[in-house]
Amino acid sequence: MAEQGHENMDERSPQASAEIDQIEAIRRRLEFMLLTPQDQAAIRTLKGLIDRELPVALDRFYVEVRRHSETRRFFQSDEHMDAAKAAQTGHWINISNGDFTGSYGEKVRKIGSVHARIGLEPRWYIGGYAIVLDHLIRTAISENFPTGGWLSSKPQMTPAEFGRALGSLAKAVLLDMDLAISVYLEEAEKAKQIVQAEAIAKEQNSVCESFGSVIKRIAEQDLTSRVRVDVPESYHGLRDDLNSAVVTLRDALDEVGRSASSINISASEIRNAADDLSQRTEQQAASVEETAAALEEITTTVRETAKRAEAAGLVVERSRQSAEQSEAVMRKSINMMSEIERSSRQIGNINDTMDEIAFQTNLLALNAGVEAARAGEAGKGFAVVAQEVRVLAQRASEAAKEIRGLITASDRQVQEGVALVGEAGIALQNIIADVQEIDLHVSAIVDAAREQSLGLQSVNSALSMIDQNTQQNAAMFEQSSAASQNLAMETNQLDRLLSRFKLGGQSRPQVTAESETRLGAPVRLRAI
Questions:
Q1: Phi, then psi, of 271 in degrees rounded to 5
Q2: Of 504, 501, 508, nearest to 218 (Cα)?
Q3: Which residue of 160, 241, 285, 497 is most buried, as measured by CB atoms within 10 A?
Q4: Which pLDDT does position 501 carry in this prediction?
Q5: Is-above-0.85 flag for pTM?
Q6: Who's near 84: CB < 8 A, 6+ residues apart?
């Protein structure tokens, strides 16, 4: 159902939608004014009085309309007033019926539209309602509350009912005025917007015509035109800005023209200087290239010398290591000789001990022989043993003497060998010192040769870079020369383009064909 309702709303015509909106607006007004169905019924209790007295009230109203020129001008004749009076009488039928549905809203809208169209201000409309409502209220009060005393008829309504009826009638009249005046204000606003739009369009057309003519002349390269006609005050700033912009553009183009001529002369001078510098740079590049080739040969020779020096350094290093190893062996030999010498001394000490033992043994054997002789026959066997011991002691003493002699000879030989080994060690140390010194010199030579080789390589690289940069600089100078010539051509073209503009000042000297010929043919760039 809801979807169907939405579809119906979408399918409504604009007129139907406006009517529905109008009905809803009247309903909200009735709700706010507390004009309930009971109040509308109360209005209908006054219908007979309204239908009877309305023509009288309208006659009073039109009397006042005729008396005032401000309101009389809205009617062309008495017939016109009679037609308006008839329309008002028909409209009051809805009010007296308390019926604000159906075509009521559309009738009020038509009334408001007519008032807006003829320019009837709301104050006259409200004044008319005041006259009519005043007559109706006075008549209703006089009829409902007569002043004839006890002979008068009874009131037709109670005070509460009568008050409700008059209040509801006043609400209905105010509702009618509200709706009509709202339409009047809407139509007046629309008319005002139309008038404003027409005035703005007329003003814009005038401004566009004034500014357009100047802009057209600017498009035609005429910078002497200005907006000199009078324009609306709101466009004064735009007019001044446009005139200022044209003056600024003219001055800028004039300055550009003078600068172009100056640039043209400077470009020619730069090209000549660049050509000379390019030739000198090419000569310098050739010299640098020859120097780089010679330095490359020297670098190669030094590199080979450094390699040979490094090889000699390796041989010296091996010799130094061998000499140091021989020195170590010699020290071990000396140490061994010292050990042998100590062992010989220890053997000598042992031999002295054996000699002492042999002496003591011989002495004991002699004492034993003496004791055996004293013992007589019983000590013969002991005497034989003592004799053998003495012989052994003598032999041990003799052997000890021989050993001492050998040890003494061996010790002397060992000392001589130690002395010789020491002398050999000193000589070997001298050799090692000489080899070490040679190694230091050779290492220094190798380091110097390596540094020279590296230095020459760096110099060679730097010189190669200088050669490359010089070649590039030469090419760049050629490019600069070509660019300066192109710049001169572009300035000539710029000068020709500027000559098309009408600046209003003195004409500038044009670049002649002879000056263009002096610039020469374009320079052919050399590939890098």
A1: -65, -45
A2: 501
A3: 285
A4: 66
A5: no
A6: 75
Helix (H, G, I), strand (E, B) or coil at 1: coil
Nearest by Cα to 424 from 522, 313, 485, 334? 334
CB atoms closer than 10 angstroms to residue 200: 11
Burial of 38 (0-12, 13-18, 19+ CB in 10 A): exposed
- Token digits for 322? 């061998």
Query: Looking at residue 301, what is its pLDDT?
Result: 80
For 32-61, give the DSSP string: HTT--HHHHHHHHTTHHHHHHHHHHHHHHH
What is the structure's pLDDT at 281?
73
Alpha-carbon distance of 365 to 385, in angstroms, equals 8
Phi then psi for 310, rounded to 5 degrees? -65, -40
**Dihedral Cα 450, 305, 444, 458, nearest 10 deg:** -20
Domains along the chain?
A: 10-205 (1.10.490.10), 288-495 (1.10.287.950)
In three-state secondary structure terms, 412 is: helix
Half-sphere exposure in the Cβ direction for 183 (13 Å, CA):
24
104 burial (CB, 10 Å; 0-12 / 13-18 / 19+) is: buried
Assess contact for 488 and 264: CB atoms under 8 A. Answer: yes
At residue 510, what is the residue type?
Answer: Q
Binned average pLDDT, 10 residues per bin, the chain of 528 residues: 46 69 83 87 87 88 86 84 82 82 78 78 83 88 70 67 87 84 80 79 72 74 69 70 76 74 74 73 74 77 76 76 74 75 76 79 80 77 78 80 79 76 76 76 76 75 76 73 76 72 57 47 41
